[in-house]
Write a structure and sequence with these properties.
The structure is a homotetramer of 396-residue chains.
Chain A: H1 17-23, H2 33-50, E1 56-60, H3 64-73, E2 81-86, H4 89-100, E3 104-109, H5 118-127, E4 133-139, E5 141-142, E6 147-148, H6 151-160, E7 166-170, E8 189-193, E9 205-209, H7 211-217, H8 229-236, H9 247-263, H10 265-286, E10 289-290, E11 302-306, H11 313-324, E12 339-343, H12 350-366, H13 375-386
Parallel strand pairs in A: 2-3, 2-4, 4-7, 7-8
Antiparallel strand pairs in A: 1-9, 5-6, 8-9, 10-11, 11-12
Chain lengths: 396, 396, 396, 396
């Protein structure tokens, strides 16, 4: 309603001015040298964000869902088995996608609020004597529950089972905000998008692909053209694109990478932890609980917060929007009505976080929640000011 | 190189300031009323551009290639037969896509420079006694050759053969620039994109879908999730999207439609004809020939021009770019080296067209083409000023 | 430092996106009809904001200081006497300007924190038997102290003294934010600027001029050319400008007026009161005092707040800026070191105000101020939510 | 009308995207370090454009007219004598300004189309035995007639007369487009603006001031406050401003300087000469004449062109605007109706120049001018392509 207020949905994020300016370019000829000289370094630099030297970065003009589809279609064949744990709306949707593409999905059902069950993965993989499981699919940051899973542990489980399956990770809402180690964690395909940690508009799926996944590509039989890695690899090599590229987003990506590297990825991660911790202190001060079941699972990009018994979280987010013009994330799937979500990712500052906390406090008070106005803000202020960090400079 | 010069590639087009401003919006909550109230009218208004009242408009955050894939995957099953004529790079690519998705493609090979062969379609359909052909695929405006095909004639041919196949039309580079009559021509799926007649950034595939195609959707077995019409229809109905929508493009689309309706679609088409005719007069004055074989095939959005024997069209477009900072379309596929292309679509003015003609004349002179400087410009000036039209107002 | 954080200086204000877009226009021909058709209505509509039907609006490409100079130079002659009260930095500067232009300035010295002394004005005017005082100069909103003066009372005092002097009012930081009644208050020249209530970039002085002031113009002998009303009146009449106009600001002004009228001037004033009252509740909760001496003097666009004895207000604003990237106003003149200022004008929301309060609380805590974190925020939240108003829509 | 077409008024110029983006910044605190660190280098770098090491750069939020006023008011006293030649509208207006500020203006009347008469200046100065003339005022580039004067010759004349008068030069429409040598030419005050060679929006007067002029400042008695050098010098020294600065323009100026230095000032001048020469070839091909009386007087930023006997230049510029949406400069003052002007300054390309020539040719043909369509374009094409230069890169 008002472009003046920040929003607190867990992506797309508030876009800093530098990136709005970077995306606001006139059409340029994508077959001309200027584009070529822009695009190739963007792909190369994005590898640093995935923390991969072996992998290849591939982008599509699509959303994260398109990235999931690309991962699956380029490496698997109809009837292939994949192993997935369901612990939130986004893991659920990836399962659904696999099923609709004719894959045999072995599902491990988990509580929403829990993370990727490394032990159960190990058991399932060990039981898979005939090595029918071709890939393990994991949601790194389950945006619906505010849960961050331990990908290194999943990799360790796969190794413990000596299983050759590929590891596909959805890092849509974690990449460029929380630590991600594609090579170190042995990730074969990592799927992300432009509108979260990269702070851009929606419209670009961004994948990191390992040599092993590229090998699987050669025999994969699922149909694909728009999402075909092969066309991308063939044209990207010379700075081209198999069809019209999302030029404005690529120029935006160039500036986004510049901003991330200026701040330093480690500092970006530390900032997200710090701001998230401020939010968590507020939640605690309100006497409310996170959906994430334990501190090791706390996401630094989104906090899903249970409302007290007898309250409807949808009424709360509506009140925040209608009365104060501020958007928070609603509870998704089985969390609908039970939890609301505070997105705290992207180009965010202490000041913005505090404004979100102050707003939701007012909305809670309006709806007679048993919370004290200012209490969450005070707890966050106390934490944030005692753990001050160098300010990021988001303006050019 | 310089954002000051217009470009003459056949899309993406020069983006008018109004649309750059419209797309340059801060992130808004796509689950909030503001987006819903924006998106629904955009879909409804886009129907007017397709000239359909019966059809449904569906958009994806993708390029035109994604639109082709969506058309096919949502209505057909593996092994289904489709009938296509190949007469340029874009009809070729759609054929390739169909083959990669496991369809049985019956191809009618035509000369590049010719259009959709209604007579051959009729013969093929009449010969298809068992009605195995499920769809006829036609490229309305073949961007590689500057050829506009007669879709009404194709429809007449299908009717003459009393064949029940669906008619799918690629109108990526024609919609919103040249007349398109989805209902009148009996088109079942029309595929377009944001970056041509809509004058926006690349990133949105835009489809018009007939009730018959929606019926076919119910039994189609090709895999799809990202491009699934069903998810779109289910969420669009209430102003939503099955995943994160390309918000900035949708706001851009709202303003684009406003501009198109302010000018009037008939006037938009007339303007494109007039500017294209100016270009054609210049080509004639240079003593050069169009790739399009006859006037009824001339495209009003792009002219492909043969260079004289012994000249290399790639050297010409490189000279225009390197010496004058202006992009023209290169010759694609079998036209590579033989023809260059002048895009003349979108928010274009007489003044811009003349600057393009003046530029390519200089580049031709630089490369010792047998043309007289100023001759094409003069021919275009003469035509344009004698067929003056009301100026469009592109500024808000 | 970060364009993400709002700022809380008492102007220039945070510029809403709509106005940034409106000012971001390409150069247009200021002698062409499009500009003429834009400029004339802007002048006419601005009269509504001054609440004048008799007056004329004149703008200059300058700051508010230029507006003061224009007021004086166009109506007075060297040696003319003017009556002014000094009660802050901006009244002081206007006095200084008058003196430098050779006027005889009769100064009434007042405490900083007080407002225009109507009674003393009346006494001085009554004592001026020979009617040498040509104009009374009043600062409506003293930005240095957060004091709003009662212009109607000044007019009443002038009337009580039956004195024919003109009344000049500096409403730079009040117009379009707080009620202003040019005709009803008998104001002869009202001076404002683009960067406060109009929410635009700095660069346009905006004056309302009464018929009486225009009459005085005819005999005024102070030198002026750039600021000459006569050139403006002569060219503005036909939509022109005597020199190159600040085109981008004029397009911005058109949109600013649209926003103000969409919200409704009464609602704009009510919103500023409400937000200011929220700030005042916070100040009270901190146990601090405003510089403004009594509630009737409280400004709704800026609050100047005394820091406790022994603290340096400059250290506080520096801490807010260096640690949190948020700008507040420093103490000016004799308030330097003693008070800081919270600007709360323009396109501001509850959420933004709360973020400012939360930030300054952290800075105060960092410097060991005896305040409780969250206390000011809570007091403001309580007030703001209990006096909720319809949200303004700042996005187009 | 259409923001797509370039304009050919002699300033404000077409603004390149980089500068529009640079000016489109959110409000920042002008008392904070970020602004200080931006503003000081801008002032220092602008000295390079004036080619002065001894001088000081001072800017005001005003137009060029304000710059003229600042020059005069800061260095002269009422009744002081200045020597000026009148040979166009802008020299005329500066004379008028001086007279309105109570100066004694000794005017040398010259034909419009001629330049500054060094010989007559020498005679007048030699005749001024009592050294009453305090300043010689010269318009470097008379925008009304397209005449560039020889400032070095004026300085030589002053030296030949051994006269101590200051030399003030209006370089509004020449600085940053044509060579200017403040130190070498002994210029005491050079007056320019943001909207010409700096390619920015209107709103900043930019002055170069010599030590001698600063000395004169100390005793100057003309009234000034807004335009007072002293306040500027006192605050600029520490990166400040005496009142609210035109922040957006200063950020724009930073980027403008960057662009100018990237291209290289010598290359900027060469480009303007080359483009101007292209225009002059076209004028010659049309059989028309420039107002400028001889080649040494030809301006490289604007060409004033006589229309043939019996034609009305206003009808021509109106036709270009109404029929084709392109603005050219009208004839000013005694040139009104007799000549039109083609502005060719700022961020201009060959392509843009040719589009302007093609447009005015059409308008001339529409009005039955005895010119051949394409003839001017062809002459310009021939010159431009034979004198090709490296392309400037205006995009970031």
């Amino acid at each position: 309603m008002s472009d003046q207020n920040p929003l607190f949905i867990p992506g797309p994020t508030n876009i800093p001015d530098r990136l709005r300016a970077a995306m606001n370019v006139q059409t340029r000829d994508h077959r001309a040298p200027d584009f070529v000289e822009t695009f190739a370094p963007v792909l190369a630099d994005t590898k640093k964000v995935f923390a991969t030297t072996e992998g290849t970065v591939i982008t599509f003009p699509a959303s994260g869902t398109g990235g999931w589809e690309a991962a699956v279609c380029n490496t698997l064949s109809p009837g292939d088995k994949v192993l997935v744990a369901r612990y939130g709306m986004f893991s659920h949707r990836w399962i659904d996608l696999c099923q609709r593409h004719g894959l045999d999905v072995q599902i491990i059902e988990c509580d929403w609020g829990s993370g990727a069950p490394a032990d159960k993965f190990e058991a399932a993989l060990s039981a898979d004597k005939t090595r029918e499981i071709k890939a393990v699919l994991v949601t790194h940051n389950e945006t619906a529950t505010g849960v961050k899973s331990d990908i290194a542990a999943v990799r360790a489980a796969m190794n413990a089972a000596s299983h050759p399956a590929m590891l596909f990770v959805d890092c849509v809402s974690s990449l460029a905000s929380m630590e991600f180690q594609m090579d170190a964690w042995g990730v074969d395909i990592a799927v992300s998008g432009s509108q979260k940690g990269f702070m851009l508009a929606t419209g670009m799926a961004i994948l990191g692909v390992s040599p092993k996944a590229l090998e699987a590509m050669k025999t994969a039989k699922l149909h694909r053209t728009f999402f075909d890695f092969r066309d991308m690899l063939a044209t990207n090599a010379s700075g081209g694109f198999p069809y019209t590229p999302p030029l404005q987003l690529i120029y935006g990506m160039r500036e986004s990478l510049k901003m991330l590297f200026e701040e330093g990825l480690e500092n970006v991660y530390a900032r997200h932890f710090r701001l998230a911790e401020g939010v968590r202190r507020a939640v605690d001060a309100w006497g409310l609980s996170l959906v994430a079941q334990s501190p090791d699972l706390y996401s630094d990009t989104v906090s899903a917060v249970y409302v007290p018994e007898g309250f409807d979280s949808n009424a709360l987010t509506e009140q925040a929007f209608n009365a104060y013009g501020v958007s928070f994330g609603i509870g998704l799937g089985e969390m609908n009505g039970k939890a609301f979500r505070i997105g705290h990712l992207g180009s965010l500052t202490d000041v913005m976080v505090l404004s979100g906390l102050a707003t939701i406090e007012m909305a809670m008070a309006d709806l007679d929640y048993p919370i004290e106005l200012g209490s969450g803000v005070a707890a966050a202020q106390e934490y944030l000011r005692k753990h001050r960090a160098a300010l990021i400079k988001t303006a050019a």
